[in-house]
Specification:
InterPro entries: Flavin_trans-like, Flavoprotein, UbiX-like. Its EC number is 2.5.1.129. Belongs to the UbiX/PAD1 family. Helix content is about 40%, strand content about 15%. It has about 190 residues and is α/β, with parallel strands linked by helices. The chain has a six-stranded parallel sheet with strand order 3-2-1-4-5-6, with helices on both faces.
């Protein structure tokens, strides 16, 4: 068996909480992955409103470790703690802006900043539309400092048959962007992708 991959999943308050949940579910299915979860207060609200009251307990039950967003001293806030990458899904414009401009006022943003300073992969599933120039400039700033901007867009050419298939495809794509050896195995590929 390969070495364990510690991955941080941040869920912020933008719409699309089901994508973050599916990413956690997919990674938790993989025996080599340990998911460190950070959910903002707005993310908690969105999970409850979009998925249901059982979403938070389910997520916290399958994550390797659940970190309070106020715990800026958590292990994942340190560059010396071995993390293999981080995904923020969904990533609100507020969270994108805080990451891009170094406003480290909570653990989700601090953990993302650590990924950037340690030159680790940070994938941001920015969920907003339409975008004004300030949003676009913030995405450029985040990209220039090392983040991967990956809006959660469906791959219509795969002809998904349901919303769940769209969510799964986006989740698998985000996981694959981490570039982890032995994690982007066929078990983490959407069945229609070639």
């Amino acid at each position: 068996m390969s070495a364990r991959h510690d991955v941080i999943i941040g869920i912020s308050g933008a719409s699309g909480a089901a994508i973050g949940m599916r990413i956690v579910e997919r990674l938790a299915e993989h025996p080599a992955c340990a998911v460190h979860l950070v959910i903002s207060p707005a993310g908690e609200r969105t999970l409850t409103e979009e998925i249901g009251a059982d979403a938070l307990p389910r997520l916290r039950g399958i994550a390797f470790r659940d970190h309070a967003p106020s715990d800026i001293g958590a292990c994942i806030a340190s560059g010396s703690f071995p993390i293999d990458g981080m995904i923020v899904a969904p990533c609100s414009i507020r969270t994108l802006s805080a990451i891009a401009w170094g406003q480290l006022d909570n653990l989700l943003v601090r953990a993302a900043d650590v990924q950037l300073k340690e030159r680790r992969r940070l994938v941001l599933l920015v969920r907003e539309s339409p975008l004004h120039l300030g949003h676009l400039r913030t995405m450029v700033q985040a990209t220039e400092i090392g983040a991967i901007i990956a809006p959660p867009l469906p791959a219509f050419y795969l002809k998904p048959q349901s919303l769940n298939e769209v969510i799964d495809q986006i989740a698998c794509r985000a996981i694959n962007l981490l570039g982890l050896p032995d994690v982007s195995a066929p078990a983490l590929q959407w069945h229609g992708e070639t």
